[in-house]
Fold each of these.
Amino acid sequence: MAAAKKGLGKSFDSLLGENKTDKKQSILIDERKKELKKQIATGEVSEIEIGEIDPNYEQPRKNFDQQSLKELADSIKTHGIIQPIVLVKMGSRYMIIAGERRWRAAKIAGLKAVPAIVKKYTPQQIKEVSLIENLQREDLNPVETARAIKQLMEECNMTQESVADRLGKSRSAIANTLRLLTLDEQVLDLVEKNRLSAGHARTLVVVTDLDAQVKLAQRACNMSVRDTEKMVREYLNPKPVKPRVEQSIELKELVSNMQRVFATKVTAIGNDNKGRLYIDYYTKDDLDRICAMIEDLRFNNNDNKNE
């Protein structure tokens, strides 16, 4: 009976833990909803018709996972959008600066309007803010991140140091991310399709032969990062191949005869001009037998000389 109570206690505690977590999340959502209503009431946040909003075609994210969007749409149906998207006025319409994923999910959920903060930006500010917002808040894949950082540097005249400061990252992290863009497009495609991680891809940067780089990347899809590093090292520092030495028929016959005489393995390394002969023994009896045979040969040779 005591064991049964103990098991029930664990199960009940687990359920309570889940309920506490759900309750805490529910409280946070309710608080955010109240805050959003206040922002809408004060005009800080506006409700904009979905049909009046266009995506930003220069934004770094190019692919949106449909299953993930559906899950977000289901959440929006239940709770609504609790985090406003950021827009900029473009003539009679609006363009998304941040929050395209929420906007797409809201369309799937059937919403007619979305809460939004409308900003006034210059074209230069639009590029900068859009890129930084997405880099900070969106779940970009490593290649999208690298391309966005490069675009930020080129179009907004930013250095690696300034990008690192704006994103709260180290300069080395920015440099390592940018290095991915030196890879062949086929390798980048494997990263974007999540067949290769950024860690795998970075190990391939040092391979300058693009055909070899692609072949190594395809092999790396089924390897760990450590094994990929080893494979790349072996490619860059191949073991020297020893030239094959052709042996004469006479030398091969000598080896064969010695194996029959000594009744063990005999190996010849080299050729008729230079090399080594190896006689294997596997027990002390083998060694004693071979020694005795050599002694007999030496003794017979001495007798022949004396004659």
Note: The CA atoms of residues 164 and 170 lie 6 Å apart.
Amino acid sequence: MNVDSFRCSLCGRVVKIKERSDAPILEPNIGFGVCKHCIKELYGYIMEDEHAKIHSQKKTFADTLGELLEKNKPHVIKEYLDEFIIKQERAKKILSVAVYNHYKRMKYGLEHAGMDDEIDKSNVIILGPTGCGKTALLSHLSKLLDIPFAVTDASSLTEAGFVGADVEVAVRNLYYAAGQDIEKTEHGIIYLDEFDKIARKSGENNSITADPGHEGVQQGLLKMLEGSVVEFTARGQRKHPEAPTIKVDTRNILFIVGGAFVGIDKIVAQRIRKGESNLGFGADIPPKEDTDAKFNELIHQVRPEDLMKYGIIPEIIGRLPVICTLETLDENALLRILTEPKNAPVKQYQKLLEMDKVQLEFEEAALLAVAKKAIERKTGARSLKGIIEDTMLDVMFDIPKSDKPRKVIVTEACINDGADPTIISLDEENESNAEVAD
């Protein structure tokens, strides 16, 4: 054999070496050479074997369901939520039990497939004022369970045929939150926020005019909540008959709908007082403290008939058997939220400034001022970080100009009057302390 060709030791063909890419993997003068065709085939076999191994090792959701239930009993879920959510004890218990039972239902369905004794799905409706922790509760819950979670604004949905987002968008959002994995999507959690905004405008009475963003949306959600195959197009694609669609079965998706339901407490109060004489000289006039009962005392007494009166259609209420209610956060609760949870706003800013060798300190009066401002804004815990951000903006802009270690002290005047936080050089403080010690 001349130097311009060689015989492949695997396939036996004689290969002429025209280019460098044609050269054998080993020099032919040592008695062994492999041609590029055999190399490609060998690579293909190796990759097929690797893919087969990965596929065989990949666990399905059904394989991990028993482990998920064993690790996440209701008391374990609540203990985890306690690390991030202040108060709302009743809501944390309700959600812990609801989620645990939802995945137990799945396990039962897998173990008793084909039998008639199915356990019905228990979707959840969650009520509470703005900034009380509804979305935060569910977000932390999904992280603990390591399952896909997607939030969709129900007020943006419209009835099919009208301009706006169709109800299938909620499932599509979960599909992308699950990394476009259909199996993960079919076992995730969908949270429909602002659900109270799609209540019928006329409450218990049907409207005779078009109502594309209210009752029609509720009707569109019915089958999805109960469990059906939902078809939707990929993001960016227009919906038309020939467009390729993605199909997702919603039987095992946990739906949680929530909102502030402003005024629901008044409906509850009316129901509680129903039957009492309210007219004439013999009217039963309750004491002022009973008439003006606190929101927190009434919200926990919400019943399906109250939701119906608010404007949620009976068919939807039947598919939301679990009612979870959250309380208004008072000043003490907001103070605790600022500093106690793992992801407390104050802790977050302290970690950010530590990266610039700066110690951040909030005086107790300053924290109290932040809590009071949040109550004045009537936005609950949602506005806490924004209030601190306004105060810290100039400091965070100027701090990186120097590498010297410093301490920043935020006072009450900083929150209420816009005064600059006190900045102390730690080098000078250490020197003065050393002089005092001498």
Note: Residues 204-210, 285-293 have pLDDT under 50 and may be disordered.
Amino acid sequence: MDSRLEAIYNESLKRNPTQPEFQQAVREVIESVQPLLLGNKDYADAAILARVIEPERQIMFRVAWQDDRNTVRVNRGYRVQFSSVLGPYKGGLRFHPSVTLSVIKFLGFEQIFKNALTEQGIGGGKGGSDFDPHGKSDNEVMRFCQAFMNELSRHIGADIDVPAGDIGVGGREIGYLFGQYKRLANRNEAGVLTGKGLGWGGSRGRNEATGYGLIKFVDEMLAQKGQDLDGKKLLISGSGNVAIYTIERAQAQGAIALTISDSDGAVYDPAGIDLDLLKQVKEVERGRVKDYADRRKSAQYLVGEKVWDAADADIALPCATQNEVNEDDVRALLKHNVTLLAEGANMPSTPGAIELMLENGVAYGPAKAANAGGVATSALEMQQNAALQQWGKEKVLEKLDAIMTTIHTNCVETAAEFGAEGNLMVGANIAGFKKVADAMLEQGVI
């Protein structure tokens, strides 16, 4: 890293000494965009990098709520509003015990450039809580969401900050959050949240968007090699919304999804994942992947294991959480003949894992490009809300495919322009960063 950029990074380390996930995301972006930064004196004079890595606003708050035994519980809530230079802050809410300020900041930082790549006029932000909805009753989840929104409502709005769902925040949680916002604001501001129910402002295709968008991005990566998905074997981690709809679209195109996972272990199903059973277990029963394995004769449950060493395959699609793929996992993937990895989760690969993939010729699709379909379709939901319309599913998915194709093309062309042909990580980081940096220059020092 250039000494001038290293000084800015070291200052960030000093300011944020206990935020490893955030610093990992920052370093990756700085190293990728170094040719752009060093080649533009205006960026240096305006301190673009120093400004981009410092959030515009960081909000932390107490969330006190009562469980079903009338015991008062206390969690911590977050909303980091990172960059509004391209439009209102936009990014999901994550409810999971692993949530910390560092996690929310890394997610928000990545969101800036992911949103820029969609070209939808949205800024970057992220939020959430260390609340765990797993094992809670609907009433407990409702009371928590209402308490969370009591504070969050002060900081959001259709033209200010538009949250959506993420891990632990699905349609149920969005419904409770929206209902409480409406009560507090005393108005029906449909555009304040995305991921809403179809009957009250939601968009068709939103549930499928991240998974479908991921597969469209993989289609584009394969097309570069003169290949398609038909007959390809996939190792997929996770078993939530992203994994489910990744499997749905991939299998519709003739691929075979061999694995799913959760925090307790993995399932290997050589017959291919039974999508109907998976949806029943996860979406209806809110169960675990072990429940799937118990009811599927062909499936093997691998206690405490990851999916990456389960079987020979062509493609790996991490769709669970950050840093789930390390160097040992890449070695396992190489052993099993995997030649392409695209990220459905946010920052699921460690820096060492990415380096090892690139060294060994594995085609790598970074999260900020490959999983941008979810936020892109959230922006389409915002457009529908603003126009008081609801589009057909075919129209939404057609627009989604066009956005994902444009993102891939932009990444490929930008990587080649800056001497990193074929490196989609460099292409994504530079393309997203440049769009944000140019807007910052035009809007002045604010």
Note: The chain has a mean pLDDT of 96.
